[in-house]
Amino acid sequence: MDLKPDDLLRIYKTMLLIRRFEEECIRLYQTGQIRGSLHPCIGQEATAVGACFALRRDDYMTCTYRGHGQAIAKGLDPKEAMAELLGRRTGCSKGKGGSMHFTDLSVGLLGENAIVGAGIPIAVGAALTAKLDKSDRVAIAFFGDGAVNQGIFHEGLNLAAIWQVPVIFFCENNLYSEMTPIRAMVCIEHLSDRAAAYGIPATRVDGYDVLAVYQVTTEAVARARNGGGPTFIEAMTYRLVGHMVGDSEPYRTRDEVNIWRQRDPLITFPQRLVNDFGIVPSSVEAIQKEVESEIQEIVRFAQDSPWPSPEEAMEDVFA
Length: 319
Hints:
The chain is of the alpha/beta class. It has helices at about 5-30, 45-50, 70-75, 80-85, 120-130, 150-165, 210-225, 255-260, 265-275, 280-305; strands at about 60-65, 110-115, 140-145, 165-175, 175, 180, 200-205, 230-235. The chain is about 40% helix and about 10% strand.
C-alpha cells in the first residue's frame, strides 16, 4: 500500500472530524438550531474516508441524505457544511439545501439526494460526460442497501455496463433499509452478486476497515480511468445511531449494536496506527486535540454567519 505516515494520520483526522461533526450536529438539532430531519453517519466514517481518499478532487461524486461524511471526505469545507445545516448564507448551498442537499461542484460533489437511489443515474451521466470529453475523471455513487431494489438502480447499472462508463457503484450495506433488515428484502446473501447480471465486476469489503476500503476503491478507480468500465463495491458497515435523530431503534437489539461498537473504526484505527504502523501516540493525540479545536471553530463560523435575505429565495432557481 502506497500510504505514508502523514497519509495515515490524515485519514484518521478526517474520520475523527466527521465523527465530531456529526455528534455536534446531533447536539445542535436537539437544541433546535438544525431543523428538518437529520440522518447521522456515525459508524460509517471508514467507508466515506477510505473511498474518497482514492479519488481526485475533480472526480465526480453523488451521495445520499446520510452523506455529510462523504461530502467532507471529498473536500467540502466543513464550515460551509455546518453553515448549510444551520440555514446560513455561507452554506455550501447558500442555506437553501439543508442536511440532505449538500452540493459543491468545486470538489466534484454533484449533490446529496433525499430520494433513495437517485444519485446513481446522476453519477452514470457524469461518467458518460467524462468518457465523451475523453477526460480521465471518474464518478462514484454512494448508496445504501435499500437502493438495490429501486428501479433506477437496475437502469443505472445496465446503462453503465453497456456504455462502459468510468463509474464506481459504492453500496454501503449497513444491514438496514431505514428500519427494515435487508435480509427481509432480498433473497441473496451478497448484494454484490446483483452486479453479475449486468456484467459488472464486483467485490465485497469490510467497511469498518478504512484501509481495505481504500485499497478496493483505488483498484476500481484505476480500472475506470484506464477504460475498464464500472465496478460495484459492497462495503459491509453499520450505523451506530438510529436511522435519524429521534429513532427509538426497536428493530435491532442493544447487543447487536454493542458488538459493532467494539469494532468502531474511531477506536480500532488509532490503535492500528500505533501498533501496526509505528506512529507515536503523541501524534495521534495531537490529531485529537486539533480536531476538537477545529470543531469549535466550525460551529462558531456557522452560528456567526448571516441568514439569507428574503430576496434571495428565488435566486439559483431554474424554470
